[in-house]
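Bug: token stream looks shifted between consecutive jobs. Job 1:
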Amino acid sequence: MNIAHIGLYDEQTVNGVNATTCCTANEVAKQGHNVCFYGFGTKNASYKQGRVTVREFQSGFFGAGTKAFIKLLRENPDNIDVFHIRSVFRPENWFASYYLKKYKHKYAISIHGGYDPQIFQRGRLKKFICYHLFDKPCLHGATAALTCGGQSEIRDLRRLKYKGPIYPVWDPIKPAKRVEVPNNKKLLYLGRYDIECKGLDILFKIFKEVQEIDPEVSLNLHGDAARKGDLFELKEELGLKNVSIKQPVYGTEKMDVIRDTNLYIQTSRWDSFGRSIAEAMVLGIPVVTNEIMNISSLVEEEDLGITVNTDYAVSARKIVDFLNNPRAIKETSDRCHKIAIREFSPESVAKSNLTFYQKYFAPTFAELEKTGSSKNQLTVEI
């Protein structure tokens, strides 16, 4: 099968959509399928990114890159069976969907939590205009939607009157060896320094109560450096100690940071998935999540840590009691690793993605197979 994701994606960013797309795309390619990224960038070029073939087109209002992109969709020289549009509030998605529909190509869509009602409240007028001008026709033209596991995304799609089929799949996380959880009373957060979306004010207020109970507990944060200033102000306002606000980390450095923590904590107000939560679980690190997050249903059902809310004192007591219970930490660590490997392995997620593609796009693929035009060969040059 030949699959094209609309957009350029890079794992080395603090962005769950990029990480999910790159990991899934490379695993699908590893299983014998051809995968492409089609997107606008700084040049016209064709190159390899891991196992994925990238078709990059120079941005510009109907310049040479735009015309080449339209030609690619019209002629489909890569024999693409499934086009997949990801993320929201990106005019290039509307542009791609317009020409995909014009040239009778079916496409899938993934919103990655982007239509949460609270997101619409941020920059309300801009989001309203962007959704009705660009996102709405793109969304409602999709043959099927692939969501990242949470019921909230399904509710969001139905609230926006999307009538197509919805197929839930967790995001992929690379497998790793389970570690022995250190007894160092360290809490860790990894992600964007977006106070409202990521609930960092909730995190800090819970931690203030934690410190009242046990001053030895520390909190380390690694995230988007551009937004550190607001966090430092909040830290000073609450009079917090033992809180370190640091630069983002990636790859092996990120895994090393997770290994050196007692509990991973994320108190987002809205989050489609929470990759760093799952990455901690893969290593066997117990987690603390806001009870309203999608992944909290799994945390509660499988007893993978603690769920908290805005009752800061009660939430803090649960965290401190857990940190002081070595047996509970060991047993939770075992469950975290086992469940994470089962639910989030790239191989399993890639197979689920392929099942989705085959279920809703198989007729197109089967017709191409009969005519011999889908040969799993990518030959186009830009």
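Job 2, same session, no restart:
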Amino acid sequence: MADQTTPAPSTSTSAGGGQSGHTPLTYRVEMTMAWFRDVYKQQNMAYYRKMGIFCLVFGIPLTLVSLYILISDPSETTLESIGAIALFGALSVMGVMMMQGKGIMMRTRKGELSSFFATHGMPNPHGPYSLEDLHCEYDVTVRDLGFEETVTFENGLKLVTKQPWVVLTGKGREAQGGYTFAANDGKNSSLWYNMLGINALIREGLESTPLVVPRAVENQNPWLVAWISNAIESQRTAVKGKDGGSDQLKEKISAWAGVDAYLPDGRKADPTSSKDSEEVKRLLEE
């Protein structure tokens, strides 16, 4: 693994593939369930805030209306008004909790959790574990065009997932184990899109994987978080500019991004080879 400490960067940021002078940088992520719970919350905070506001917009006025009816005509509507006050009051409380990211039920998402930890190197996460037993380790490499996640499985298979900076929103927050950069999950953060389903309250998840920077890596590389933020903003501006974005940069990203698989013998799997593809599939299913 590469040294986690690098020289202080220059003030310029190259998100277009030019050498910036302080990348690549590789560090190890040791993800625990306690940390992942916070990462999951950070990834979905935009959706939770919208849902919380939605609950408050309806909950508070309807609670006040029910209270007014109870006070103005208590003899005829006592039970109905009390029930309505309790219902809409609970809706308001839920709205406040959701805006703060509280009350996220992870046990109802065990399949999604197992999938994340399985794809990030944990052997048999579907086994008889409690949620708190879930953990995984993988390497992250920060490059000029984006970041790589390298996962090595027990059977020797290694997957390197390369993603450009543009897949991240640029909105980062401190989490329990370090800094989290939320991924752009498209419609998954849309309140109205989620309201189309019966599972509107639990539909949010990890459509895209956020980038995490462990606190120890932050401390050893105090420039890193700001550099990543600048790289995200710079690349998003370049790719999604009013003039249609930089075609040259888009071509670089297209040629670089993707998933590389390395077989246990160290050989890079050929994506055009059906034999290699079948071998990778078999190893993933072990």
